[in-house]
Write a structure and sequence with these properties.
- It is a single chain.
- The protein is α+β, with helices and mostly antiparallel strands.
- The protein folds into six domains: 16-102, membrane protein fhac (Ubiquitin-like (UB roll), Roll), CATH 3.10.20.310; 105-182, Ubiquitin-like (UB roll); 188-273, Roll (Ubiquitin-like (UB roll)); 279-354, membrane protein fhac (Ubiquitin-like (UB roll)), CATH 3.10.20.310; 360-432, membrane protein fhac (Ubiquitin-like (UB roll), Roll); 436-783, Beta Barrel (Porin).
- The strands form eight sheets. A 16-stranded antiparallel β-barrel has the order 19-20-21-22-23-24-25-27-28-29-30-32-33-34-35-37.
- Strand 11 (251-259) and strand 12 form a beta hairpin.
- The longest helix has 17 residues, at 139-155.
- It is extended.
- The termini are far apart.
- The relative contact order is 0.05.
Amino acid sequence: MKLHSERFSLPFFPRRIIAVAAFVLCAGQAAAVEPFTVRDIRVEGIQRTEPGTVFSYLPVRVGDTYSDEKGAAAIKALYATGFFKDVRIEVEGDVLVVMVEERPAIAGVEFTGVKEFDKDQLTKSLKDIGLGESRIFDKSLLDRAEQELKRQYLSRGLYGVQITTTVTPVERNRVNINFSVDEGEVARIKQINIVGNKAFSDKELRDLLNLTTPGWFTWYTKADQYSKQKLTGDIETLRSFYLNRGYIEMQVESTQVSITPDKKDIYITINISEGEKYTVSDIKLEGEMLGREQELKSLVELKKGDVYSGERLTESIKKISERMGNFGYAFANVNANPEINRQKKEVAFTILIDPGKRVYVRKINVAGNTKTRDEVIRREFRQFEDSWYDGEKIKLSRDRVDRLGYFKEVNIETPEVPGSTDQVDVNMAVEEKPTGNILLGAGFSSSEKVTLTGSIQQANAFGTGNTLGLDINTSSRNRTIAVSQTNPYFTDDGVSRSFELFHRTSRPPEVNTGDYLVKTTGGSVKFGVPFSELDTVFFGVGVERTQVQVYNQVDGFNTSPDAFRRYVQQFGNGDPFNVPGTYDATTTGFPFTIAWQRDSRDSALVPTRGRYQRANLEVAPVGTLKYYRTMYQHQYFKPLFRDVILALNGEIDYGKGFGGKPYPIFKNFYAGGIGSVRGYEGSSLGPRASNGDPLGGTSRLIGNVELQFPFPGSGSDRSLKWFTFVDGGNVFGDNERLDVSKLRYAAGIGISWISPIGPLKLSYGTPLNKESGDRAQRFQFQLGTGF
């Protein structure tokens, strides 16, 4: 292509064509255009692009002097927009003509044959990288998308996948893109071979791996589908297994992954060198120990004569580093140098400690709290700004915020302050969760069919950290209306205050076999005083007015249980045993409460470690009633292995009247159902009336054991898990001793989920020693709190 100036007047050169490529490739062969003043600029060839867009990229305007350099710059700028696949500049007299050929736009993106992925999600992902409807079509992006889609299929074990991409032109310079996918069959792991192992069997080592050959549940877990990431994790698992058992020189020498020609079966071979088993000959500390050598030595878990364990050594280093952090040395450098004696098969370690500079906290930043006020979070902090860094206080601060129960996730980081070597910031990031709690309970049994309970509670109301509760129940058995409020920081020192106003009515489940009515109206106020970071003492007072109504019919029909008639006989008027009629007794009590609570759990909603203990004493020394009730609960959580949590719960309760007064029957303890002994109908265990209705008892013993597992496919989400359980418990009547031989037991499985409207528990339990008169209720669920 040649460039022609306006001085050429031959009839077959009506225009002077300017092309930058010709200048680059044929420099010296093309005639240069003599500069001239541009009278007008015209754009030709555009269909969708606005002329103003073209003009905005041109380095020349009407009235400017045009030159070859400006022409080259104009073409380069227009190409760079990505809107055009061809650009030319022509000159007609003193008019500049910009001729473009637009790239086609994408009319639509379609997928056929896709089953493994959600099509809408794929479409969104492509649009995010610029390959979507109304976007300019770019072949390089299309190629990249095709390769990425294929890579995703390969990561899911679909090695036989075939992807055919079709680009079809349509009207108005647009194209349709179609990804036609033949997914093929998933390649399964046919065999895993471990070569070089002598100390441990193939089966023992294969059981450690997440990758496995097809089994009963691999259709769901997909553990029989190969992925490089899973294999890398399994290799680390193998290495850790050996290192924790003394094999300090164990090496994974190579791995081979092969696939059959039909791309259906995968064979994995892992070659290892075990080395020798070593014991610890000596372990010593060196460096700057701040005069705390003995204290730091006590943190070392490995001792002379122990079989070497990489896990215990790492834990020792971690503890020393954390302890140095408690003294303000946030960036302490702690390393263990081994000295291996291969002849004696011994290893000695020197742990070098370099505390570095002492660090203090510049700022504490909180992020993610869209509803909760900053002060609600900050008042839980035990690390303060402008004070020395204390790792223990920072961890305690995180745990206290997590125990509030307002957040799904609580994470904390301590980055260095830029430009400083002795300052850090403490950044806490929280993820809010709904704190309204609707408590719905349900169960099914042959006697009661479907039973329901319910209440509503709002923790962290309006982001203040206060809790408001409204308990309403309109069932035929129990009717309740109760209002409660808790302010955890009634004073700046952390003294809490709670009050409750309530009116409750209860009657037996089968009113036509033995009827009675209990109405209680009252209120209470309680204060909680923290005595340490973990311990709180509560004290309070309440007032209760209770009316008990019983019936004595001539034919026995609708006659109340003897225990209730005895109570009315003592506190009311008349003879409900010998004279037919309706009788009632009204009593008043002023219960005083003192309680102690210790909470070291890492989370209130989904604890994985720690303990929760609560002891409560309720005494009513004045009024019509005189009694006391003692209650003690102890929960324990411990991680076992592979995210499996052991959860234990024990409760023992006892009540008794004094001053010649009987223990009030409406204060009885009950057992059965979620929260006590699953597999039995709620509140159905223990003493019964002559008609079989449960009466509860004056003492109770409960024990629960749970093994909690992450739900398959939930990853690291702690809010969803499944569990197996064994429950035991019963209640005992007045003057009846706690008898372990009379406990009822049940076992089963369940699912626990921190749902958007509150904690949800589903359980299916089977009674293990059900006796005559016991009411089984295998399926139960509860939406709300409860162990």
